[in-house]
Specification:
Blueprint: H1 2-11, H2 30-44, H3 47-60, H4 66-77, H5 82-94, H6 105-109, H7 114-126, H8 130-156, H9 161-168, H10 170-177, H11 181-198, E1 203-204, E2 207-208, H12 209-223, E3 233-235, E4 241-243
Antiparallel strand pairs: 1-2, 3-4
Helix pairs in contact: 2-3, 3-4, 4-5, 5-7, 7-8, 8-11, 9-10, 11-12
Length: 260
Amino acid sequence: MMPNICALLCLLPMSAGAVVDESTGGPKSPVQEYKALVDEYEEVGGAKQFAGRFFELAKKHQKDPVAVQALVWILDKRRSQPAATRALELLGKHHLQSPALAQACRSIARVPAMAAEQLLRRTLEKSSHAPVKEQACYYLAYLLEQQASAVDQLTADDELTERVLQYYGQEYGKYFIGLNRAKLDGKLEKVYELMTTSFSDVQIDEQKLGDLADTALFRIRHLSPGRVAAEITGEDIYGKELKLSDYRGKVVMLYFWAHW
C-alpha cells in the first residue's frame, strides 16, 4: 500500500502561486523569484508594467527581506510616479522594523515626495536596528541638503519655478517652492546634532558621520547669510595681532591681494 501512496503524492500538483526552480524541480526561494523578475524586466523592459508584479512579490513574501528589495526596485524605477509613493507607504506600514530597511534609505531619500522625508524620520525614530537608524539619519540629512540647494537655485532664478512644478508635480512642487531656507537650516542643524551625538563614529562612504556633521554645523552656524561669522585671528602687515570680533559693529572693507 505504501508505494501507491507515494505515487499518489508524487502526482499531486504544487500549491497555487508556487514558482518552480527548474534546476531542482522544487519551488523557488523568494530571492530566486526576485532575481528572475529582475532578469525578465532587464530582458523585455517596461518599468510601468513590471511595477505591479514587484508589488505582488512584496505582498506574497511580506515577511521576507525580499519584500523590501521589491519595493526598493519600484522606488528606483518609478521614482517620480504614484507607484513610488505607494511603495513608501508599504515600507512604513509593514517593514519599519526590518533590518533590510538600511539598504532602502538611499532610494527613499531620492523620491520627490513629502512621504520620503516622513518615512526617513519615522525610521530614525522607530527602528530597533542601529544600522537602519544610521542610514536613515545620513540620508535624511542628504534629502534636506538637496532641498536647500534647490531653494537656493529658486531664489537666484524665479524662472525655474515652472520647471520645478513640471518635474516634481503640483503638490510636491508647491511644497518645495514654499520652503524657507532658514527653516531648512534649522531642520538640518537638528539632524546633524543628532548625527554628532548618536552616530559620530559610524562610517558611511569612507567618511565618519561625526566629521561630516561637524563640517556641516560649522557651515550652517557661521557661513550662512545672517549668521555671526566665526572668529578669525591673525597678524596685520605690521605684525600686530588682530581679531575679527574687534571690528563687530564697524564698517570693514576687505581687500584681497596676492603676488607671485
